[in-house]
Amino acid sequence: QVQLVESGGGLVQPGGSLRLSCAASGSILSINAMGWYRQAPGKERELVAAVTSGRSTNYADSVKGRFTISRDNAKNTVYLQMNSLKPEDTAVYYCNAAGKLWTMGAFDSWGQGTQVTVSS
């Protein structure tokens, strides 16, 4: 009932920047938290950054000072600005959103993932 569509991944050189976007659609009454996770080959999925409806943010230590998460509540969209990218940031990045549906009940949905590759 809730779809998340991600965009903005790609190949970038070390030190470069990328901006990821994720738009949520469907029978959404409200979204509490939106976030970005990533999963590198052979590793578990990990939280990169999250933002609440009140715009409180949380970041993984490895990205603090380099990544910025933001959201547009009117558009049900979350962004991840990634600067000073490093090869270890290479992973598939997944968007997540959790909240309430118009039809009552809650949702916790994931996007399909977008590949970010940092390499020279």
Keywords:
seven-stranded mixed sheet, mainly beta, four-stranded antiparallel sheet
What does this structure look like?
Strand 5 (about 45-50) and strand 6 form a beta hairpin. The chain has about 120 residues and is mainly β. The radius of gyration is 14 Å and the shape is elongated. It starts with a strand and ends with a strand. The mean pLDDT is about 95. Helix content is about 0%, strand content about 60%. The chain has strands at about 1-5, 10, 20-25, 30-40, 45-50, 55-60, 65-70, 75-80, 90-100, 105-110, 115-120. Strands 2, 4, 5, 6, 9, 10 and 11 form a 7-stranded mixed β-sheet that branches. The chain has no helices and 11 strands.
Strand content is over 45%
Structural class: mainly beta
Low-confidence stretches: none
User: What is the overall shape?
Assistant: elongated
